[in-house]
Design brief:
The chain is an alpha/beta fold and about 260 residues long. It contains ten helices and seven strands. Helix 6 links the parallel strand 2 and strand 3. Helix 5 runs parallel beside helix 10.
């Protein structure tokens, strides 16, 4: 609950994306499937990923996975726009990203309180923006994104070179993103909320007054239990009917 005398716009709600707002598979795997169907990713792309993975996994298994985007080397960022357009008519069917019903209800609640909404995710920033635009349309609110950026070759068309620009948005990088957003918007993190499902979200959850573990991994569940955090099981993917209901709730929230 927002404390007495606390302006609601000083409260932030920070959401992880894959596994927290969205049901599996991840956005990146969905996008890769789209690229495979179009023939945009070949055996050479996969080979580059495997070589890079083999070279670095013995030093840092997580880093080798999170930081290795060689399979996307040579891919135009414009393909994300085409993928988004392909999802528009099929958003509630097939492989289209599907939000958890409980997640939508929670976002509507935050919207009704006047809280600022954010997605802070390890997925690729252009893909996270696709999800944010859909959520924004559903709840009639702005949702700002902080996610993993890919480096690209200079030029009019952004062609990914398979390297991450900056840090992978996980662990400490998520907390730094949350703090940067808090400074930008004048947020009171002691009264703010964060939602995550994996151990990579732990520092983000620690950084706010209300850390909430959603569909937590075993490791995160142990930490959440030890710290007395709320734990939620969001398992029901929202249907088209649910999305219509969310729009109605969001409309009532702004009256």
């Amino acid at each position: 609950m927002t404390g007495a005398g606390l302006h609601p716009e000083t409260v932030g709600a920070f959401f992880d994306l894959d596994g927290t707002l969205l049901a599996a598979p991840s956005l990146e795997w969905r996008f890769i499937g789209y690229l495979l169907e179009r023939g945009e990713i070949s055996g050479a792309h996969v080979g580059r990923w495997l070589v890079r993975f083999a070279e670095s996994c013995w030093r840092d298994l997580r880093g080798a996975t999170d930081g290795n985007k060689q399979h996307l080397c040579g891919i135009s960022e414009a393909l994300v726009d085409q993928w988004e357009q392909s999802l528009e008519l099929e958003f509630f069917r097939g492989d289209a990203p599907t939000f958890f019903d409980e997640a939508l209800q929670r976002i509507v609640w935050h919207r009704a309180q006047g809280h600022r909404l954010f997605i802070v995710s390890g997925t690729l920033a252009p893909l996270a923006s696709v999800a944010a635009r859909r959520l924004s349309a559903l709840v009639s609110a702005e949702i700002e994104v902080r996610a993993t950026e890919l480096d690209a070759t200079p030029g009019a068309e952004r062609i990914w070179n398979g390297r991450i620009a900056g840090d992978h948005t996980s662990g400490g990088a998520k907390l730094r993103a949350v703090r940067a957003l808090a400074e930008r918007w004048g947020l009171d993190l002691a009264h703010s909320y964060a939602y995550g499902d994996s151990f990579g979200d732990l520092q983000m959850l620690e950084g706010v007054g209300h850390g909430i573990a959603v569909n937590p991994t075993r490791q995160l569940a142990r930490e959440a239990q030890r710290r007395g955090w709320q734990m939620c099981a969001w398992e029901i993917a929202a249907s088209e009917i649910s999305h219509v209901a969310v729009r109605r709730l969001a409309a009532k929230a702004v009256r």
